[in-house]
């Protein structure tokens, strides 16, 4: 019988697990252990929080009173040093043992730091935590020379924030059209072109090395004849799942903590959710999903497992991002489409791209048109046949597309 649940990690997956346990009727002890002062939301770190428009309390996932109201014990500023499932306990960094019938690992991930010479310089930043943002913020002053390495979601958002703050920004990526697999090549290229329109210099290249100089840090790029000098560098080249606790406990780990569809690890008393979890479905390991909504759904799924109730239905993956005052949403897997349909104009106030395969929508992405993506999500989940001409017709409202 499960009476004591310990959740390790206070990101959206961990908080979602705790909230879903209580909303599902769990009356036992719920303890959430987190390294920070309190659990906070991470998407604002590259936008409003980095710009100084919001402070840490304004990006809290829940107000402090919520934990008391929900009878969730929050142990903050504390690390977990070991899992002891055989002893039904979790060991904290100070040696204290927390009783735990079941443990949920919501340990998240750390920023990837590729083996580039000179990458350990204090001028080279990453952005995964509020502390990272606090360290980077003083460098983002008008006229500062900033290099952003990686033009994916984090890199594009940081570049957008920095140029708005008056920095001179170079954005470097080895791929000609970043995010083409998620957004499609047409929309991906147009969005990447927004950087130049807002004063960001984009360079298709890789970084070979960094070297400290008295007046900054030099970066040698594969396409440049001479090094370029910057005041600061931000790496946005992906994340590495935090699997150390799982490995030390002898759980199955394979580029993530391996779980089944109910988010149970190779030890039945331990579950894993969010960024580090890697689902085995039908005997096949799936790619990890590193998006906010996926982490929230993971928490709900883990709670259902602990409660012994039916898990929520799976739904197609969805994410959003913001850059240069444009809001982007995407759903599904655009690289699975055989052809695309464009709705609206890229240069208009809003637009959307639908990815089709065998007469079905398999993906969609939009700029300032979230209703199109919401409709596409329902089309994908319900496997509704579609008429490409109606998809492209902006006079047809997105909700009407669901009626055939």
UniProtKB/TrEMBL annotation:
<dbReference type="Pfam" id="PF07992">
    <property type="entry name" value="Pyr_redox_2"/>
</dbReference>
<dbReference type="InterPro" id="IPR016156">
    <property type="entry name" value="FAD/NAD-linked_Rdtase_dimer_sf"/>
</dbReference>
<feature type="domain" description="Reductase C-terminal">
    <location>
        <begin position="318"/>
        <end position="401"/>
    </location>
</feature>
<dbReference type="Pfam" id="PF14759">
    <property type="entry name" value="Reductase_C"/>
</dbReference>
<dbReference type="InterPro" id="IPR050446">
    <property type="entry name" value="FAD-oxidoreductase/Apoptosis"/>
</dbReference>
<keyword id="KW-0285">Flavoprotein</keyword>
<protein>
    <submittedName>
        <fullName>NAD(P)/FAD-dependent oxidoreductase</fullName>
    </submittedName>
</protein>
<dbReference type="InterPro" id="IPR028202">
    <property type="entry name" value="Reductase_C"/>
</dbReference>
<dbReference type="InterPro" id="IPR023753">
    <property type="entry name" value="FAD/NAD-binding_dom"/>
</dbReference>
<dbReference type="InterPro" id="IPR036188">
    <property type="entry name" value="FAD/NAD-bd_sf"/>
</dbReference>
<feature type="domain" description="FAD/NAD(P)-binding">
    <location>
        <begin position="4"/>
        <end position="299"/>
    </location>
</feature>
<keyword id="KW-0274">FAD</keyword>
<dbReference type="GO" id="GO:0016651">
    <property type="term" value="F:oxidoreductase activity, acting on NAD(P)H"/>
</dbReference>
<keyword id="KW-0560">Oxidoreductase</keyword>
<dbReference type="GO" id="GO:0005737">
    <property type="term" value="C:cytoplasm"/>
</dbReference>
């Amino acid at each position: 019988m499960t009476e004591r649940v310990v959740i390790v990690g206070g990101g959206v997956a961990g908080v979602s697990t705790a909230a879903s346990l209580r909303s599902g009727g769990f009356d036992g002890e719920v303890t959430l252990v987190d390294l920070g002062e309190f659990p906070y939301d991470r998407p604002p770190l590259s936008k409003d929080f980095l710009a100084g428009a919001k402070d840490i309390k304004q990006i809290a996932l829940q107000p402090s009173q919520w934990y008391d109201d929900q009878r969730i014990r929050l142990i903050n500023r504390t690390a977990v040093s070991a899992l002891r499932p055989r002893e039904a306990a979790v060991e904290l960094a100070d040696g204290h043992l927390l009783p735990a019938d079941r443990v949920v690992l919501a340990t998240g991930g750390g920023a990837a730091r590729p083996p580039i010479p000179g990458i350990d310089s204090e001028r080279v930043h990453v952005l995964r935590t509020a502390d990272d943002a606090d360290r980077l913020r003083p460098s983002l002053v008008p006229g500062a020379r900033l290099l952003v390495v990686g033009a994916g979601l984090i890199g594009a958002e940081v570049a957008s924030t920095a140029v708005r703050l008056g920095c001179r920004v170079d954005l470097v990526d080895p791929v000609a059209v970043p995010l083409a697999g998620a957004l499609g090549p047409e929309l991906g290229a147009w969005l990447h072109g927004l950087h130049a329109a807002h004063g960001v210099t984009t360079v298709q290249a890789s970084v070979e090395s960094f070297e400290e100089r008295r007046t900054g840090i030099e970066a040698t790029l594969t396409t440049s004849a001479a090094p370029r000098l910057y005041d600061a560098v931000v790496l946005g080249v992906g994340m590495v799942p935090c699997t150390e606790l799982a490995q030390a406990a002898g759980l199955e780990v394979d580029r993530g903590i391996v779980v089944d569809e109910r988010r149970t690890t190779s030890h039945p008393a331990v579950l894993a959710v969010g960024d580090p979890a890697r689902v085995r479905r039908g005997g096949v390991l799936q790619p990890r999903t590193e998006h906010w909504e996926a982490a929230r759904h993971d928490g709900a799924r883990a709670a259902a497992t602990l409660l012994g109730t039916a898990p929520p239905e799976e739904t197609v993956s969805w994410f959003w991002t913001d850059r240069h005052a444009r809001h982007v949403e995407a759903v599904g897997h655009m690289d699975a489409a055989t052809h695309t349909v464009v709705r609206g104009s890229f240069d208009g106030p809003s637009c959307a791209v639908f990815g089709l395969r065998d007469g079905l929508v398999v993906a969609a992405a939009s700029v300032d048109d979230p209703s199109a993506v919401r409709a596409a999500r329902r089309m994908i989940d319900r496997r509704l046949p579609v008429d490409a001409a109606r998809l492209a017709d902006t006079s047809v409202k997105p909700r009407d597309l669901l009626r055939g």
